[in-house]
Amino acid sequence: MLCGSILEAQPNCEVLKDDISCYKSCNKAWRAIRYKQGSFKSQRLFDESIDLCPSFAYSYMEKAVPYLKRGEFIQWKKLIDQAVELSPSKYLGYRGWCRIQFLRDYEGAIKDIERLKQEVSYDIGYCQNGNYHLEVALGLCYKELGDLEKAQSIISNHVHSSNYSSGLFDYYHLGVIEYELGNYQTAKNILETQLENNELAEVYYYLALTFEKLNRKDEYSMALNKSEQLYLNGNSMYDNYTEPIDKLYLSDILKEKSRKLKIDKK
């Protein structure tokens, strides 16, 4: 799912009534979002909104989204940077997550999320599709940059926090990190916790690898077969626009099964 499909509630223009230009700008934005996203009429109205009130961050953000969807990242970046400059607390998290999801710009995402933590005194919240808390996103950045220990620390601290609300893939990613760190028993426990919330082919795949490391061969085989079954039934990570972090494919599962078959024949 695209992180920027619907970023926030539509703006309340009534709070801008004391500034007639920005009030008109807000109403232009209201009209713009009623047309097909990215259409000429919609983008033109956002231009008019920005002309009326250059400080109205919402219009920069909404005008940027179609460029992101089309892969026109330079134009998206110019517009979203303006939105962030005008309203950092609202749009730093969005820009940070899109840097991860679309650009794989992990260093830039870390800067945005850390800056957001400095900007606000409340919980920094979630990616706009709700799949990840931004603390988990921060941990994933360090994972992808190769700093597994820091990734483990950030995500583990988050899932053990007092106000934690379970995300769709939190324990899966944490389990993968523990596996890659060589903490196989911990990885097993965490991946099994993930299965209580969300059964995915990817989870069983890494659970299989973990069972192999623990010398539990029967459970390894069962988990690997379950991974293939779930994948064929459509129970795997999916995104309409990009490849999710730690996403697996049927070829990965079949390659592992082929490796196992060769070992068994020896």
- Please give the CATH class of one domain: Mainly Alpha
CATH topology of one domain: Serine Threonine Protein Phosphatase 5, Tetratricopeptide repeat
Second-tier CATH architecture of one domain = Alpha Horseshoe
| Nearest-integer average pLDDT | 94
Using DSSP, what is the number of strands?
0
Largest sheet: none
* Cα-based radius of gyration, to the nearest Å: 22 Å
Helix content percent band: 55-70%
Strand content: under 5%
Q: What spatial form do the alpha-carbon principal axes imply? A: elongated
The first-to-last residue Cα distance is 44 Å
The poorly predicted ranges are: 1-7
Topology:
Layout: H1 20-32, H2 40-52, H3 57-70, H4 73-86, H5 88-103, H6 106-119, H7 134-144, H8 148-159, H9 170-181, H10 184-197, H11 201-213, H12 217-232, H13 250-265
Helix pairs in contact: 1-2, 2-3, 3-4, 4-5, 5-6, 6-7, 7-8, 8-9, 9-10, 9-11, 10-11, 11-12, 12-13
